[in-house]
Structures are given as structure tokens and as C-alpha cells.
From TrEMBL, chain A:
Native organism taxonomy: Eukaryota, Metazoa, Spiralia, Lophotrochozoa, Mollusca
The organism of origin for this protein: Sinanodonta woodiana (Chinese pond mussel)
Coiled-coil positions: 450-481
Residue stretches making up the Origin recognition complex subunit 3 insertion domain: 353-582
Transmembrane segments annotated in the record for this chain: none
Keyword check for NAD: no
Name this protein carries in UniProt: Origin recognition complex subunit 3
Recorded family membership: Belongs to the ORC3 family.
GO biological process, one term: DNA replication
UniProtKB/TrEMBL annotation, chain B:
Organism: Sinanodonta woodiana (Chinese pond mussel)
Example of a GO MF term: ATP binding
Boundaries of every Origin recognition complex subunit 5 C-terminal domain copy: 358-489
ORC5 lid domain boundaries: 253-312
Keyword Nucleotide-binding found: yes
Keyword terms: ATP-binding, DNA replication, Nucleotide-binding, Nucleus
InterPro entries: AAA_16 (IPR041664), ORC5 (IPR020796), ORC5_C (IPR047088), ORC5_lid (IPR048866), P-loop_NTPase (IPR027417)
Name of protein: Origin recognition complex subunit 5
Stretches assigned to the Orc1-like AAA ATPase domain: 56-204
Amino acid sequence: MDTAGSVSKGCFAFKGKKKVAKLENYLSDDEFGQSVVKRHQVGQDMWTEIDTQIQILQEELNSRIFDDLLTFAADSCSTFTLDNLETSKTMVYREIPTAALVTGVNTPDHGVMFATLVSLLKERVSPLVAILKSKDCQNVKNTISKTLSQMVDNPQLLHDEDEKEEELTQKNLPLTLSTLAQWYKHKFKSKLSPKKRRSKGDDLKHKYPPAIVVLQDFESFLPHVIQDFITIASSYLHQLPIVFVFGIATTISAVHSLLPNAVSSLLCMEKFMAPPSSEYLTMLINQIVMTPEYPFKIGARVFQLLLDIFLYHDFSVLNFVKGFRFSLLDHYLNMPLSHLCCPLKEIHKKVKVMDAEEVETIRQLPSFMRFVEENPASNQPKLLLDEKFAKEAIVDLLEKMHTYHMTLFPVLQCLHKLVCKLPKHPLGKQQREVYSLVLESNIFETDAYKQSMELLRMLAKDELEEMLKQSIDVLMEKDRKAITYLPTDLSLFMDRFNTLDDLIGEEEDKGAEDESSLKVIPKQKNMYELRQTLKEMKKKKKKLSPYEKLRSEIIDYFDSVFRKYLICPKNLPLHEIFYYDAIGTVKKYLNASPRSATQLALSNPQYHLQSINCDEEENLSSAMPDICIVYKLHLECGMFINLYDWLQAFITVISSDAEFDPKNPDQVLQARFIRAVSELQFLGFIMPTKRKTDHVVRLTWGNC
Amino acid sequence: MKARIHILYADQLTWGLSTVFRQAVDIRYQPLYIIDMDSASSEDFETIIDEILEEIPCRQKQISTLVSLFGKRAHCTPGAIFLYGHASTGKSLVVNTLMDKLKLPFVILNCVECYSQRFLYEHILNSLHQTDLFAVNESVSRIKCENMNDFIRLFKQVLSQKGLDKETVYIIMDKAERMRDMESNILPAFLRLQELSSSNVCVILLSEIVWEKFRWGTGFAEPYVLHFPEYKKDELLQILSKGCPTDFPESCYVMYLNLVLSVFHHVCRDLREIQHLVNLNFMKFAEPIRNGEATSKDSKKLWKNIEPHLKKALPTVYLREVSSSQWQRYQAENAGDTEQENTSQNLQGLSHRCHVDLPYYTKYLLIAAYLASYNPAKTDKRFFAKHTGKKTKKISQTAKFRWEASNHVLGPKAFPLDRLMAIFYSIVEGKVAPTANIFMQITSLVSLHMLTLDPRDDQIITPKYKCLVSLDLIKSVARTVNFDVVRYLYDFV
Ligand SMILES: Nc1ncnc2c1ncn2[C@@H]1O[C@H](COP(=O)(O)OP(=O)(O)OP(=O)(O)O)[C@@H](O)[C@H]1O
Ligand SMILES: [Mg+2]
């Protein structure tokens, strides 16, 4: 018997030993390696700090979402009892309480979300929680066994005296809900005896904790499985207080497309909405990215890319965090001076131990060179030659950077508060949009900024007052000592608002005057004159009203503040140390396009193989690898490719005309051709077909 | 009534007594306490039947038929009884109540649960045997049974062990239509269980479909067939009126039921559903009375109060998207502001169903998939080729008429991945790199059940997809990106 065939088809998985990646294994012993180790530590510390902050944020957010859900789960079964002997088993029971949790389409985040949900449920509601995923539940039996095993093998329930529990799994029980129901009865009804009761269940609200079944990806369950499961569960409702939680990614109507009326009428659903992930992202950006706490910052282009991936591709906060983390690691790996990107209090120490070489690297930084040039001529040589002087300057600059961050964000928030409600949102609706503009260039030089200032100069009184109030609130928030004079100045304006009312009286007469001049308008002959008059009238009006005077004063004040604080970081010296903006790398890793990479490699082999020197891209030459030639030839074909013609073309390219003998092609060439073709098939560009003999089908067109 | 209580064993029993009361099987096993009531028995039996009839109105015929079929405890009943009728016509209710009140020995089992025949056998045997899996003394072990042969042997064994071989034992199979999907010997064997096991057993099958649909193959013993007809409107009223809260005037409650039925009866006759609706809206109905704004006689005022709410609930019949407590909360929230608009808006929010937020490119992918599913492939050129001028009127009206709406009537067609991507690139704004993220979104759309992978073709080399979303949803998605999807749909051009 020929066994080779079966062997070649077998696929055996061996679990290898888990290797723990160590930093040392990846780094060479040379100087570069040494310096990476140094930066690695700083980066790790930074990340740990940020990560804990993210965790805290997530927990806060989740507990807020789930609060209602948890109360629902706890309350829905509070009337359940097994003690009541009169309740016969035939008594008609209600529907199964079901929480439909609409989670949003960001499936990558759901894993974390449900893990938190389950742990919260276990902590606060009931130890009996089972989480089911569609991939584990291909039939009813699996579904039930998953439920059973998660509920029965619960370490939280095992801690007390009787070891019977451990035997339970070994007893080879039938996998049915009736087993579970009996187990439940045995477990919790026995608590009737007061002796046992005290030993456990102190943390449980009810004597009979609900059995909660969480279906994480409800849409993906097979309809007949989930229908049967619900039907079965409902028939045990009198013995087992079951509660369902459906995780629905799209809309609630998914329930109805999966469950017929007969099944859905067994449920009593309550809908819960998780807030959209964009809200979570906003929160995250506010607390992680737009904060002076962490000196590491991502630059304009990377920030925009990460945002784009979020908004255009997946809505996944988890991926955003991953992208952020990647940027951080890459920054600390590749930026030689990034160990200076550290908390404020460590700067002195770090700069002190810098060696001459590092100082020299700093001097090479474009932003530092610009700084040198801006310095008075007397200082320039000192900066470039005197190490001590340079170090002092560096410390100074680094500290300035920190102060810059400290002032940037409150002022930024203030600007956002002012512009977010303007018509047409010239600076965007979200604070991150304003921030992104600041990162890119000096925001006060952009047209959008000027436009918004124009709009602000037309605000009504109550609107402006409201905004002023908000700005003061923003600036007064928690520990923002950096710019204490701002809120005081703004409060002064506020006071003047209040005295403004006295002046209103005078206004009235002037309003009348205006009207009289308005009547003049129709007499104007042409458009130009009309416009002129209108402009003049505007000016006149501006001069007239005290409110308008105050308004323009306020806006001017704001404008000067923004010009002072909202400088683009790119214009600051040493910004390279703090800002990571290697968009190419990030794109390559986070938003890769494998197809384009393959196509580039095939059509342009010299991109990877420097040894080949063919100048023009399009040209075929025999110097190229076979697969590239075959690939280029196939681009010219239609849907079906005749192998023989293809081979001929291949041979023509490879061999010079003199050797060519179409009657008797070289065997080696044929073999090379076949190998190239199968490589192409392996890459998914072609496929054999039964429709035409000696042909293959092309599978790709253009970019897709 | 004076009753003597003996502790008896199976062989000592005198089974001539017709109305011996004993505990139902599912209660923990104890020695049989038989209540011996020679004289009072038959009257007692009558009162119990009356009680049942009282409890379950509108089912006199079915109940009396069943009672006479059951006969006295030791009487031989038909081997199989088949009860059928629409959902919530009281099949389970009648059977369960009879078993319960007459205290007959029975096993009930839901055929949905029986994913293997083993479960079926073992469930019946163990319930009869009252095995306690978690008993403290583990002397009793679970009965194991693999096939029909063993089942019949063990069944007899258990009956005699438990002293049940002198009276009729009932096996109730709910959702019996599922038995047709099990091994082909099971249904015939259960229909003949009495004969095969030569014991006094009666199998009761409950189903929603008629007996004729069960017949296939051979070896079927015909069961006794009993129909549970649907309730008529006045019967519904009679049944529902039993649910009147004790502190509420009955006549007023009946009026309320009348109102509810008048709104819902033409869309829904399912008793359970109507019961749900009745409970859902009752608080609202009773509110003016509780508040003292109206008396229970004030029928016009009450009607005015409740009608808009009922009308609003009409589109959500059967959906069960809202639990009664949540519904009441919504209504309570709305109680503050009396504006009708506000209420309706809130309810809109409650069931706004067509809205799903997708990432930007995913929206375009979905639209492209929809177009690829519902447009014939040969029209792609017409819609998406960049340089051809508008040739919209090329197809003659008659030719178009033949096609009209047919694509949407026929449902979505499968399309290959490259067609999807081609359409995607021609409709999406700006330059989009074909990154891995884009392709991942296709997979995630599949996992959201908005697309489906066609299982027929090779799923790796030439995957084909179908778009599953509705026109309404795609319209609302397209609106969010300002894309006029209808203009690109062949059916609507
Ligand atoms: N005649 C009746 N009197 C009182 N209540 C009734 C009556 N008929 C039905 N019901 C009520 O309707 C509900 C459904 O009844 P039941 O469970 O018996 O329906 P079914 O026929 O078994 O339906 P299914 O085929 O879906 O199992 C019961 O909870 C019961 O309260
Ligand atoms: Mg039933």
C-alpha cells in the first residue's frame, strides 16, 4: 500500500515550548545595543504608566456601561425560589429575562469588553456565569456542555469544605441542562440548613444566584442551535433561574432574523446600548494623547493615520492603542536621544550623564541647529563647542518643552470650547481635530482659524458669555497652575459683561439712527456702491455698541493667547525627542497592503534585489528572476492563459534569438517555466481550470 | 372526610380503587403513601375535574375526552394519544394540569432537548426511577441505556421496581414533530410502546402540526388524534378575563380586554402574545383610575387615554424587544411631558432598527456588495465605467420591463471578490490603498452576517459573497456617506 499520500496530507500540530522573548537576544553587543537597552527601560516605564491609565479608564467606562446591565441581571431573578413546595413543576413560568447588549461593530474590542462583563457579573451578581462564543457552539450538545462546564467547574464555588465538587466532573454526568438543574438544586437548596449557609454566599445578594449565560457574538450563532438552546433553557426556568445576555454587534433586529416568533416569545428582552466606540476613543485621546503627563507624543501624520485607521477601517479602540504603543516602542528603539523623553524631574540627571557623542547628536538635530541660528552670535560658538554650556541649554530647552505641553492643552481645550459650536465647524467638532491642526502647523496661520475668529466676532452676547464661562471653567480645572493669570483676566472680562447692561440705554437711540441710514440703501445705483455703504455702516455700528467693543476686545485677547501658546511643536527646538512622526514605518506595520507589496516585488524586482540592474521598470529582461518574467507576461493576457503560448513567450525572453528553437524547447527552460508558474499559483495569481485544457485562469485584475 | 393512611408496597395494593391519590413521580421518592378513600372517592374525582374545568375555560371537550380516555388508574388507555393545535392553544396546559391534579405517574420531556436517543431513553428511565445525581449517599447510580432494546427491558424493570406496573404510566413528548428527525425506529417504537413493553403505558404526543405529516415508512400504530382548535375572540376574552387583578373591578377589566382585542385581534391571535400585550399596557390603562382622574365607569376617557399607546405598540407585536418593566419606565418618563411628539420620539428610539454605524470604508464595501449582489454583472460597465458617457436610455423600456424588480424579487446573487473590489474602487471617494485592513473588513462584515460566504465555490482561491442586508438598511447606510445608491441599482433606473 502506498502510504506516502496520506503522510503528505497529514497535518499535525505540536505545541512547542513557550519561549519567552528576551531583549538581549535581539540586540547585538555593540554600542547600538547598549544604547537601546538604556532607552528600552525609559520606554517601558512610560508604557507601563500609560497602560495602567488606559486600564483605569477602561474599567471606569465599562462599569458605567454595565451598571444597568448588572442591576438587571441581579433583579430579574430575585423572585426565584426552590423552597416553595407548592409551586409544582407544571406551573406556568414567565419568559427568560434577556439583556440585549448592542455593542457596536468594533468586533476586535469585544473580547476585552465581554471579559470585563463576565468578571463584573461574577463579582457582583452571581458566580454562575457562562460565556459562549459561536465558534465553540456548532451544535446543541457543545453549547450545553460549554455552559455546564463553565458553571459547574467554578473555582469560586469550590472553596468550601466538601470535596464532592471535584468528583462531580469526573462522574461523567450526562450533558444536559437537567443535570445542571439538579446540581443547582443540590447546591443551593441545601443552604436551607443554616449551618451551611454561613460558610458561603455572603457576597451573593440572593440565596439563589441567577445562572447567567452570555452569548458574545450573537449574530454568528447557528440559528437552529441557538433556537433549540433557548427552547430547552426555557423549559428549565422553574428549576434554574436562567438569564441571557446577548451581545449584538449590529442592530436589535438581528435577534429576529435569528429567532422565529415561537422562540423569541420565550424571551423577555431588555435593550442596553454600549456607547459608541468613538466616544471611548475621544476619552482615550483626551487622557492619553492630549495630556502633559506623558512626554511622549505622536506627530501630526501618525496621529492622523491612527485616527484614519479608526474612523475608516475598524472603529477599534484596541487597535488604536496598539498603534499608539507601536509608535512608542519604535520611537524608543530608533530615536537615539529618546531616553531624554522622560518625566520632568529626571531631565537633569539624564542630561548630566550624557557623553560628548550624544551632545553632538543633539547638535545635529535640525531643530537645534535652527535654535542655534536664532541665538545671538555670541552664544553660537559656545552652544556648538562648549559641552557644559550646551548641556545647560539642552536642559533648559527640554524643560521648556514640558512647560509648553503644560500650557498647550488647557489653551487648546479653551479654543475648542470656543469654536466647537460655530456654524459649519471650520475647526472641526472634536478637540482632536483642533489638536491635529496644531500638530501640523501654527494653527493661527491657517485659514480655518481666521475664519473662526471672524465668526467669533459676530457672536451674540449670551453665546459669548456662555463661552467665556466655559473657558474659565476649563482653565480652572484641577492642577493647571501653569497659566494662572488667564482665568483671572477672563474673569475681569466677565465682570465687565455684567456692567454692560447699564450702557444698553444709550444703545437704543443709536439703533434708530441706524435704521434711518438703512433706508438710504435703495437709492444706491450699483452693486459696488451698495457694498461700500454696507461696509461703512458695519464699521459705524461697530464703533457704536459698547458690547461690540468689549467683544472685539475679548476676541483679540483670546487671539493673542492662542498665538502665544498654540505654537506648532515642529517649530520648537528638540521636538524630535518627544514627537514621533515616522509615518512610513507605522503604515508599513499597521496598515500594510500585502497585495501591493507582492506586486511591487514581482514587477519591480530591483526594488528588493539590488544585484539586478535593469533601468526601465516595464522592460522584460532575462536577468530578472523567472517568476517576475512569468508574472509580467501574464499581465498582458486575458481571463484564460494558454500555457503553451506563455511558455513560448517565456523562452523568447530568456534566450537570445539565435539559440531559439521552437520545435525543441530546452528541458531546463521548461522546468524553470513550470516552477515559476506554480510559484505564481501559490501566490494566488492564477489557478488551473477544467473549462479549457492547457489553460489557467487569471485571478487578479489591477489592484484587486 | 376521614382518610386512613397506610404504608403499602406494590404487591399489596388493591388496584380496584379508582381514585387513589399519590404523589407525582417527580417528587422525591418515598415509600408510597396511599390515601385510601373508599366512599368519598368518586365525588372527589368529580370535584377535581370541575376544578380543572374551572381553571381552564374553553377546553371542556378536550379535557373530558382525555379524562374518559385515561379512565381509572389501572384501566388500559390507548397506547398513544396525539394532541395537536396551534401555539398556545393550551395543549401543554391541559395535559400538565391533568397529570398534576389527578396525581398520575408521568414523565414529561421536550423533544427539542433530545439531541441523541441516549438522552431520550435515559431521561425517561431516570425520571421514573427518580435518580438523584447529587444524592449524599451515592448508592443509587444512574441508569444507562443505549438503544431501544435495552430501553424496553429497563423500562419494565423500573416500572416493577417502583411499583408502577399496576397503573397507567404516562410519557408526554412535547414538540413531537422533532421525533421525525431522530432515528427512524424511535417514533414507531414509542407509538407501540404499550405493545412492545406489554405494560400499561400511554405515550402522549404534543405537536403543532397534523398527524398526517408524521406518517412515513412503516410500522406506525395510529394514535388517538385530538385537535385543539384556535380560540375565538370571545373565548380569548373569557380566558383573559381570569387574569383580572383582585383589586380591580372585573367589568372594567373586561372592557380593557375588549379594547386591546379590538386593536390587536386582526394581527395576532396568539393567546400568549395577547396576554403579554395585555400585561404590558395595563398599567397605563389603570393609571387614570389609580390617580383618581377617572372612574372605572368612564369608558370614553379611558379609551382616549389608552388608544394611542395601543396603536403605537401595534408594529412591535411579536418582537418582544422591550420587557414590561422597561416599557413602564418609558411610559413613566413620558408621563412628565404630555407632548405626544416626545413620546413617539422615545418609542422611535426604542425600536429604531435600521441604524448601524460602520467605519467609513466598510460602508462603501457594504454598498458595493449590495450593488454587486443585485445588479447583473454585465451592467457594471454601464454604471461604473468612468469614460463612457451616460447611456442610460440605451435599454428599451420594454426590455427593461421584463427585468423590472426581478433582481430584488429573486434575491441576492453571489459575486466574486474582485468584482466587489472593482465596484468599491469606482464608488469610493479618494484613493484607497488595498490594505489588509480593507480585506479584514470584508471578513468582519461576514461575521456580522451582512455578507455571507458562498459555500459552493472554493473559499480560498475564488471566494464568492452575497450581500444579506435589506434595501432599507443599505439606503440608510448610503445616506450617511451621501451616496445615492438607488441611482446605481439596475432595478430602479
Ligand atoms: N384555556 C385556557 N385557559 C387558561 N389559560 C390558557 C388556556 N389556554 C392557554 N392558556 C395560557 O396560554 C399559555 C400557553 O399555553 P400552552 O403552553 O398550553 O400552549 P401550547 O399549546 O402548549 O403551545 P406550544 O405549542 O407553543 O407549546 C399558557 O401559559 C396558559 O396560561
Ligand atoms: Mg406546549
